[in-house]
Specification:
Dbl Homology Domain, Chain A, PH-domain like, 2 domains, 50% helix, disordered C terminus, guanyl-nucleotide exchange factor activity, PH-like_dom_sf
Length: 408
């Protein structure tokens, strides 16, 4: 039954491919630059990359896959997780090609003159229109990679689909996973191509226009990197959240009953006090310590986590699985005062309330003076980074800084 289904599926794929073999006029390129430029043997050589061919191929594979699902094949496979947003990528890149590269090509075809790269400026000026598609793709590719690998292993028909796709001449012996990853480097390739063009361009005015395009691409690449970093931070915070079983600073069930408000630990949310682009906290340090609540409190084992904007005191509930319970209310980094004792292996942390008054005294013992020093250094770093982020987002909120002291 599997063999019959496989054969039918492959036959359908071949039929779909044959029906789709239509050239798209605007993507057709001459075999050589001398076919465009008059007196080509007297001109300097110009090279051009056909950026859309790959996206066109992946978009066709996506369409074939959806057709297969329509007739009952692989309906348990999520096409969006396999091909991400390739249809949107193809659409946006086709628009980019039409507004920039095609205009440059047509200008040379019409007048028989060398390719003028400054004509591409129109496409790069609209980079904000197509950049979000790249962000969506790049941020989702890790999940796509893992999902395709899993489906290839667990799903016989999907394995055959991938095998068929990789057998196509247009894949140039690439694996489907490698081919799917190609847009990851598109911004870098644009920049490198433009830099090479600028190097061989004569005339300051034209070089300035090309440099402007390079600057736009570099800014777009930084935006993508920043988005990736934020997503990475969020993923790490979500992993920390998964380890937290409960919040025991108060009776949460009683709180929810009285106030009719669902309790939520917002570690993976953007940090408060940062206005503008969402800023996510990161983990600077986490370690097991001994703690006493007040001078005469009972010494207990705790696990403390220092984030960009807060200090968290937890209790280990299951060491084997790394499960935690939040023992004390989180302390904002700007409301934390820390003081080291003369033996340098003990220190005290106190949260300061909005009226400048201490609300608790937590005595900590580290395993060594080196670990104590590490906590002081990391708290300094986190505080500095938080203020840098706050100022960079132009927050108008005034947060008083609580300084650290070394004690006597």
């Amino acid at each position: 039954m599997l063999e019959l289904s496989k054969d039918e599926m492959l036959e359908l794929l071949t039929r779909l491919k044959n029906e789709a073999q239509k050239e798209i006029p605007m993507l057709e390129l001459e075999q050589h630059w001398t076919n465009i430029v008059h007196d080509g043997d007297k001109r300097s050589k110009q090279t051009r990359e056909q950026q859309e061919a790959h996206l066109k191929q992946m978009n066709e594979f996506h369409e074939y896959f959806l057709k297969l699902q329509e007739v009952g094949y692989m309906r348990d496979v999520d096409s969006r997780r396999v091909f991400l947003n390739y249809p949107e990528l193809y659409s946006q890149n086709s628009k980019f090609w039409k507004k920039s590269i095609l205009q440059m090509l047509e200008n040379s075809r019409d007048y028989g003159i060398p390719l003028d790269p400054t004509i591409m400026k129109n496409g790069f000026e609209r980079i904000d229109e197509w950049l979000p598609c790249y962000k969506t793709f790049i941020c989702g590719y890790a999940d796509c990679h893992n999902y395709v690998q899993k489906c290839q292993k667990d799903h016989a028909l999907f394995f055959e689909f991938v095998k068929w796709a990789e057998s196509q001449d247009t894949m140039r012996r690439q694996s489907l996973l490698d081919a799917l990853a190609n847009p990851m480097q598109r911004l870098t390739r644009y920049r490198l191509l433009l830099e090479a063009i600028r190097k061989n361009t004569v005339g300051d005015a034209k070089r300035d226009i090309i440099q402007e395009m390079i600057t736009r691409i570099e800014k777009a690449a930084r935006d993508v990197d920043e988005t990736l970093n934020k997503n990475d931070l969020r993923d790490k915070l979500i992993e920390v959240l998964k380890a937290i079983e409960s919040y025991e600073a108060i009776d949460c069930k009683e709180f929810e009953r009285i106030f009719s408000t669902k309790f939520y630990i917002p570690l993976a949310d953007p940090m408060p006090y940062c206005v503008g682009e969402p800023q996510f906290r990161r983990v600077y340090l986490r370690d097991d310590l001994k703690m006493k609540d007040g001078k005469y409190g009972k010494k207990i084992d705790v696990h403390c986590i220092l984030f960009t904007d807060l200090f968290l005191i937890c209790k280990i509930s299951n060491k084997r699985y790394g499960r935690l319970r939040i023992l004390k209310s989180p302390i904002h980094i700007t409301k934390l005062r820390i003081q080291r004792f003369p033996n340098h292996s003990n220190f005290v942390v106190t949260p300061i309330n909005d009226f400048g008054m201490p609300s608790a005294l937590y005595y900590f013992s580290a395993t060594s003076t080196e670990n104590t020093r590490k906590w002081f250094d990391m708290i300094d770093t986190a505080l500095k980074d938080f203020y840098d982020l706050k100022h960079n987002t132009s927050s108008t909120l005034d947060i008083p800084m609580v300084t650290q002291t070394n004690g006597r």
